[in-house]
Amino acid sequence: MIDIITMPKIKCATVEHIGDFSLIGEAFDKMKKLGDKAKLLNMNCKIFGFYTSRPCDMPVSQLRSMAGFSIEENVSLEGSDLEPYVFEGGKYATVLHKGPYDTLRKTYEKLFGELLPASKLKLTSKHSFEEYLNNPHVTEPSQLLTKIGISVE
């Protein structure tokens, strides 16, 4: 089932990943290390994957994405090796994926193959996102929750 939500503008600290989206885990590991070192990553942070290119538009080796976490507006990233990114928010079609990250592809296939075409929603060129709703270090893979968001008009 698709939910339509309005996402707020969110300032984030990020690490860029170029290449196959399924390998973004390395960027998440680096993001966590840098966020902990800078004492910015805490229980109040929301964790995101931002996908700034589309696989249908370019070779896999050129795909761009970011691993990130939310930060307060007044937080400076100077000296942290983390890059600032402002997620502009807006209207998103979302679905909830339950299960291991390596099964996200099945949810995307259902979303793009069935749910979005049936919904008649019009996609925009804005970035898509994944919000990781629980901690993979303390949660069984079968219980992981990931909100997938695709920008729509």
Automatic annotation (TrEMBL):
Chain segments annotated as transmembrane: none
Source organism: Candidatus Sneabacter namystus
Highest taxon, organism lineage: Bacteria
Protein name (database record): GyrI-like domain-containing protein
Pfam families membership: GyrI-like (PF06445)
Domain AraC effector-binding: 1-153
